[in-house]
Amino acid sequence: MEKQADELLATIRKVKSAVSKESCKKLNLNKCERVVQRLASFSEDCADCQRYLLELKNHFIQLEANIDRVDTVINQHKKLINELVSHLQKKHKLVPEGMYLTLYMSIGMSLGIVFGLTIFENIGLGIPIGMSLGIAIGAGLDADAKKKGNTI
């Protein structure tokens, strides 16, 4: 499986070098590389991961063959990547990078509004306090998840 993943990563790099920066961003090829690495790490135990790796390999071979018409398959590509990420999140309990930061920042802002209105009687003071606390907690949880290897 590692050989298959290495071949797939090489194909992704070829596509990355052949398309424009704008198309590379639309295709989110950096995320694709991370997804391939995560799928490869679970492919020994998970039949779905093996199937997804093969499906992704076929997709990128087609993408490489039709490199001049990359804009026509962007929606199909995004749908496939979202399906793979969803599998990794549900089955293998992985989280996307920055998930905790965005989650806790919004929770902190909400609590900041409540405490700003009730305790400080100034909503303008509560929002930045709550947001900064949420960012601190979220960044810490993101760093912990990255350290444990639970990020996509």
Structural account:
By secondary structure, the chain is mostly helical. It has two domains: 2-92; 99-148. It contains seven helices and no strands. Helix 3 (29-42) runs antiparallel to helix 4, helix 4 packs antiparallel against helix 5 and helix 6 runs antiparallel to helix 7 (123-148). It is elongated, with a radius of gyration of 20 Å.
Layout: helices, strands, pairs:
Blueprint: H1 2-18, H2 21-27, H3 29-42, H4 47-65, H5 74-92, H6 99-118, H7 123-148
What would you say about this model in short?
This protein has 2 domains: 2-92; 99-148. The longest helix is centred in the last third of the chain and has 26 residues, at 123-148.
Count of all domains: 2
Q: Distance between termini? A: 19 Å
What's the average pLDDT?
A: 91
Number of strands: 0
**Unreliable stretches:** none
From the alpha-carbon coordinates, what is the Rg to the nearest angstrom?
20 Å
Instruction: Note the total helix count.
Output: 7
Structural class: mainly alpha
Q: For the report, how would you describe the main beta sheet?
A: none
Shape: elongated
Fraction of residues in β-strands:
under 5%
- The H-and-E topology, N to C, reads as HHHHHHH
Residues in helices, as a percent range: over 70%
